[in-house]
Design a protein that fits this description.
The structure is a single chain. The protein is α+β, with helices and mostly antiparallel strands. Among the domains are: 2-245, no CATH class; 586-712, Roll (PH-domain like), CATH 2.30.29; 746-856, Annexin V, domain 1. The chain has 28 helices and 31 strands. Strands 1, 5, 6, 8, 9, 11, 12 and 13 form an eight-stranded mixed beta sheet that branches. It has an eight-stranded mixed beta sheet with strand order 20-19-18-17-23-22-21-24, covered by helices on one side. Helix 23 (821-828) packs parallel to helix 26 (880-888). The longest helix has 56 residues, at 272-327.
């Protein structure tokens, strides 16, 4: 196979070319499978492989070849051509481009020619821009490409294009790259390569081809002609039908993850936002009922009108016949006037009647609207002695809410041993009650009947007339279930995919609530569920343009949604893991329900909605709405915060203001109290002197400075917050048990003291002796014997360092805090038979064989679906362990990303490495606040070569 591939891919480029091909990828319409053809530095084919797109699993398939034809010089070197299935009609050109002078005035041409090998003939067609049916040209202006024109060296990027498989099959396809100077009109040839496109299997019913779904960085200029070789009339009609359908489907605009996340959100964390969502749905019910009722009546009226139209049509024809008899006794009858008039007159109505009846029967049947109308539960019914089902659900929800918070108040006032199981049961019942009521209300716009109607309407708006019956809609195409993949526009397809996934995620979310084993687990599940999309706003720093004029993009919400990555919509939130304990939340804003002593200006403890924002704390008595503040904002910078146990009530903290006023709050558990204290500490660093001067004046502000940033806790040291809810904002802070930049710091002790890491024993053989060596790119530690085997594999695979002898600086020093044998083995040995694992007494050969199988061949690794999206998500949220997991389990670290440019209607292509440079961490013990790019460092240590345009 490898030998044949070297003689079956004719590739040629000119000397001193400015455009060079690095890799060719062909993919099918749904991008389920890919054919990959990489080239080495000498532009020889390395291999030709086929793989599954999502899993990157190699598909063992024998490729077919055909004898090369036409070009004698080419045949001598490449006697064969690889055969490509015509369904793999989309291709990605991984190219290197070296910008030249006046690049803004130049245009790149991707020329697809069929059975034309004569260079002079092809050159003439391109230069004269003649409309040749055997040539198709895609044009790209250089200014549309993400190229730094000031950097006069080769820059890598990907160009997406496609060819029309309905025209190009059972023929030789040659793809060449040219350049045109728009000023001088001169053309320059760069490179070309050839493939044989196999014969297309013609189906009984013609199916149009979907237009390209690749990002619109290429302006396609396609011809309308078919091949000049003889074809049958039936084939010609099929091609015309396919081309017409293809041309009439408009290109879809692209939308970001943020747009879709706003649409598909389901948050049941109690507070004003949740209660506002309930009220919005409750207010929607009468409107929805009214709209559907009107639609039903109007469609019935329209159907009745069409029937009346038919009746009047026949009456008019009969009356014209009577007039004809009055006009002429026999001659007009002989002429055939009556028959000809009836035929012409019926033609005025026939196409309309058939189209509108098709619409009634298959698109908007009023019976479907009736089902939707009946599925909407109402809150009130006419009989005052009865209650509707929805009213009963609402009363049950309000009763569960009152009972839960009443019980919780008593629970928190009890200083004795608390019944965790009872708390879990009460909390679980309340969360399920919230879920069920919100879910029932959301069915107003999201149920099987509404979704069925949406799908039909999405197909209808792209349905064109039948080419064989120009006055009639293409009924057959609409009714063909296979038509969904191309008749429904791409954005509507993604919407339906996301809607299906959204409903599935909701069902799983409810199951996870029922399966929760502890109150803490349930709290994290509600707060970090994948349907609770916390909105992140870019900071001013993140929005500033970079030195090359391109605006930085620091949130994954700006990524464009495609059919391939739409699952990212539901992957932005996760509960914190144990290994994230060293990460500290640097957010200074928080909101939530707290019990307050003397809350709502009443004695005792009462619920409040409390908001910490911009260094100020505000209490709201109406916790369901959060609109009426009870007090003036508390300036945290002029206050002290102390975690306390107040009158036997646990999880409390108090805030003492600059005037000596005391505010005592109680959280629901210790974790939530920790987060509040940490957020208040961070807020204390935000000193708005202008606001303080305006509010308090100079005399009152001056003596209060002694309170600024003061924080007292009963934790013994600064609290370490488990996990980090920050998902888009850099930097994050990190802390360790010992001062991080201490010259006498013992690296060995740092690594072995990491909790739940098993770093005291060798990751591979389990030995407890001489575990003093680390792989700085795998973030693992090992014994001296296994370290010798790791060195044997080569430094390009694993980079071994001694914790006692080697010096660790900068990012390497930071990475020591993330070494975790237990974490890495959880996925590197996920499929390992325990009996096959080596031990401390294994000989060198056995040890080396096992280690190579584990790290080089990766025989035991966990299979991760959508692994590239998992990698992107982990980098976006600065989750080092998840990033490493994705890398070691096979993610592509040389990815290119297409993202929106904020505040501009344009996109930008950057490498994953370039995106990672926007993510850094800072050490709390470092007063200089130096930035450490550990995310980027981990990519480089593991062999990332696609570093983009940035140095």
């Amino acid at each position: 196979m490898e030998l044949l591939s070297k003689f079956s891919f004719p590739y040629n480029q000119i000397n001193n070319t400015n455009v060079s091909l690095n890799k060719l990828i062909l993919t099918d319409n749904e991008d389920l499978e890919r054919i990959i053809i990489p080239l080495d530095e000498n532009k020889n084919v390395l291999s030709i492989t086929k793989q599954e797109t999502q899993t990157q699993k190699i598909i063992e398939e024998q490729f077919n070849y055909i004898q090369n034809i036409n070009d004698p010089e080419e045949i001598s070197k490449y006697p064969l051509l690889i055969k490509i299935d015509p369904n793999f009609n989309k291709f990605k050109l991984h190219v290197s481009i070296k910008p030249q002078n006046n690049i803004q005035d130049r245009v790149l041409l991707i020329v697809k020619s069929y059975d034309i090998d004569n260079f002079e003939k092809l050159s003439k067609i391109i230069q004269t821009e003649s409309n040749d049916p055997l040539v198709e040209i895609s044009k790209i202006e250089y200014k549309q490409l993400p190229i730094d024109e000031n950097l006069l060296e080769f820059q890598k990027l990907i160009i997406n294009d496609f060819y029309n498989k309905n025209i190009i099959n059972n023929t030789k396809l040659t793809i060449s790259v040219w350049e045109q100077d728009s000023q001088s009109k001169e053309f320059t040839y760069f490179l070309k390569f050839s493939l044989w496109v196999d014969k297309l299997q013609v189906k009984s019913s013609p199916v149009p081809q979907q237009t390209s779904s690749f990002p619109p960085i290429i302006q396609k200029q396609s011809t309308d002609s078919s091949l000049s070789s003889p074809i049958t009339p039936t084939q010609q009609q099929q091609q015309q039908q396919q081309q017409q359908q293809q041309q009439n489907i408009p290109e879809s605009l692209s939308y970001s993850l943020g747009d879709f996340r706003k649409e598909f959100s389901f948050n049941i964390e109690d507070g004003p936002e949740f209660r506002k969502t309930l009220s919005k749905y409750e207010d929607t019910i009468p409107t929805a009922k009214k709209v559907y009722s009107s639609l039903i009546d109007d469609f019935k009226m329209l159907e009745s009108t069409v029937r009346r139209l038919t009746t009047y049509k026949f009456r008019i024809m009969e009356e014209i016949n009577q007039l004809t008899d009055l006009e002429s006794e026999s001659l007009l009858q002989e002429f055939g006037f009556k028959k000809e008039f009836q035929h012409s007159f019926k033609n005025l109505f026939d196409s309309f009647e058939k189209n509108i009846n098709f619409f009634f029967d298959n698109v908007c049947d009023h019976k479907l609207f009736t089902k939707i109308f009946n599925s909407i539960l109402v809150q009130q019914i006419e009989n005052p002695n009865q209650q509707s089902e929805l009213t009963q659900m609402k009363k049950q929800f309000e009763s569960d809410s009152k009972e839960y918070y009443g019980w919780l108040n008593k629970y928190l006032s009890n200083d004795k041993e608390r019944p965790e199981s009872k708390l879990l049961l009460k909390k679980k019942n309340f969360e399920l009650s919230k879920f069920d009521y919100l879910n029932q209300l959301s069915k107003i716009t999201n149920n099987q009947y509404v979704n069925d109607l949406c799908e039909k309407l999405f197909k209808f708006i792209n349905l064109k007339n039948d080419p064989f019956h120009p006055k009639l809609l293409n009924f057959k195409l609409f009714l063909d279930k296979k038509s969904n993949s191309f008749l429904i526009g791409e954005n509507y397809q993604i919407y339906l995919y996301a809607l299906t996934r959204f409903n599935s995620e909701k069902y799983q979310f409810r199951q996870m609530i029922e399966a929760s084993q502890s109150s803490e687990e349930l709290t994290n599940l509600i707060r970090y569920n994948r349907l609770n999309h916390l909105q992140q706003q870019p900071t001013q720093q993140q929005q500033q343009p970079s030195t090359n004029g391109v605006t930085n993009i620091d949130t994954i919400d700006d990524f464009l949604v495609t059919k391939e990555n739409f699952d990212l919509i539901f992957s932005d939130s996760n509960p914190p893991n144990d290994h994230q304990v060293i990460l500290k939340d640097n957010d200074s804003e928080k909101s939530g329900i707290l019990f307050s002593l003397g809350g709502q200006k009443k004695t005792g403890w009462h619920k409040e909605w409390v908001v910490l924002r911009k260094g100020q704390l505000i209490e709201y008595a109406d916790w369901r709405k959060g609109k009426t503040p009870i007090n003036k904002p508390i300036e945290i910078a002029l206050s002290s915060v102390k975690a306390v146990t107040h009158d036997k009530r646990q999880f409390c903290f108090e805030i003492i203001t600059s005037t000596g006023s005391k505010h005592v709050f109680q959280a629901f558990n210790n974790e939530d109290r920790n987060k509040w204290v940490k957020a208040l500490y961070n807020a204390g660093q935000l000193v708005n002197t202008d606001r303080l001067q305006q509010r308090f004046g100079g005399n009152e502000l001056k003596p209060s400075k002694k309170h600024i940033t003061k924080i007292i806790t009963d934790f013994g040291s600064k609290p370490i917050i488990p996990g980090s809810t920050d998902r888009s904002v850099s930097p994050i802070s990190i802390t360790s048990k010992d001062p991080f930049f201490d010259d006498d710091d013992d690296n060995l002790n740092i690594v072995k003291s990491i909790p739940n890491s098993n770093n005291n024993q060798c990751i591979d053989c389990g030995s407890l002796e001489s575990v003093e060596w680390v792989s700085i790119n795998f973030l693992i530690c090992m014994c001296v014997n296994c370290a010798s085997c790791h060195r044997n594999m080569g430094s390009h695979i694993t980079k071994i360092r001694s914790l006692k002898l080697d010096k660790f600086e900068n990012e390497s020093q930071v990475l020591l805090n993330y070494i975790n044998n237990r974490e890495v083995n959880s996925y590197m040995e996920a499929n390992l038979n325990p009996t096959h694992k080596i031990n401390a007494n294994s000989d060198f050969e056995t040890r080396l064989t096992f280690i190579k199988s584990k790290y080089t061949d990766k025989k035991f690794v966990e299979s991760i679906p959508n692994i590239n999206n998992f990698l992107i998500n982990s980098i976006q949220r600065i989750l080092i362990h998840d990033e490493l997991k994705a890398i070691l389990c096979g993610a592509d670290i040389n990815l290119d990303l297409q993202v929106n440019v904020p505040n501009k209607d344009e996109t930008q292509i950057i490498s994953l490495y370039e995106y990672s440079l926007r993510k850094y961490i800072q050490m709390e013990s470092d007063p200089s606040h130096k930035k450490y790019f550990v995310v980027s460092e981990l990519l480089l240590l593991n062999g990332c070569t696609n570093t983009g345009n940035k140095k």
